[in-house]
Amino acid sequence: MTLVLKFSEQKYVDEIIKxxxxxxxxxxxxxxxxxxxxxxxxxxLTGGDERYWSSGTRRPTPGIVGFGKVSTELYDVDKKGSxxxxxxxxxxxxxxxxxxxxxxxxxxxxxxRHTMHTVLVQQLKIRLIKL
Length: 131
Prior knowledge:
By secondary structure, this protein is of the alpha/beta class. The protein is 16% helix and 46% strand. The protein has one domain: ph1033 like fold (Roll).
């Protein structure tokens, strides 16, 4: 299964777009812990749902910017009782690829929700994790 990791905070989006780091840390993740293992492939998505950052500057167009693989076990696991609230893991981009420019993800809004669910979830087995 391939998972999608969406970065929507300005400091992380800027870092990913400008620096294209070798390692990306996924933070405050709370879903799909049973599906995230070393070697799990990820699609890296940046942008966000608003056109402008809170500072008033324009956000980059949301888009797919790369593909990588999980390189660590889950760490900094925050539990509340026996329930996991959040955790972190790293994605090694040396085992993946950065795209030269973002592939516009807005096309997804043109696909009817039912069709998108069928294609992304049932056929491609993709799940979205939003950070």
